[in-house]
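Blinded run. Sample ID left blank on purpose so nobody reads anything into the name before looking at the predicted structure. Input follows.
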Amino acid sequence: MQYGSCSVKSLVFTTLCLLLAQAGNAEDEGMENLSPLQWQNRILLVRSPKAAPDAEHQLRAAETAISERHLLWFLITAEGIRTNHAGTVSKQFTPNILERYFADQGTNVVLIGKDGGVKARARSLDLEAIFSLIDSMPMRREEMRRQAE
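Blinded prediction complete.
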């Protein structure tokens, strides 16, 4: 069977080659920084040098409040990264984030607004303070106003 100047066999072969090439590069894919999330989400970065079951528990327990605020969180520990982000992150993501947002060793929590700007830095995770700060932001106030309509 022919479609234009391509046979079905060559079309299938080309498609399979493309799929295999993508699979071979899968480990290189993924988000390298936060720019793809700008204007979509607020970001909460939490750095913990050791496993942080308490921080992760707090974040997961506040799932509804976090979702309402369009907040994605990334918990960076010595064991790796945990997040509520559904996408994948590249191997370069953690080093890029640590270099850009955690140059100050006293900072363990960074809140980033939808505009990509740093809104707050803190030594420890305080979700109530973070929610209060987010709720005072003009963009969030407009979101709440629209939800109430």
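Unblinding after everyone has recorded impressions. The chain has two domains: 1-29, 35-148.
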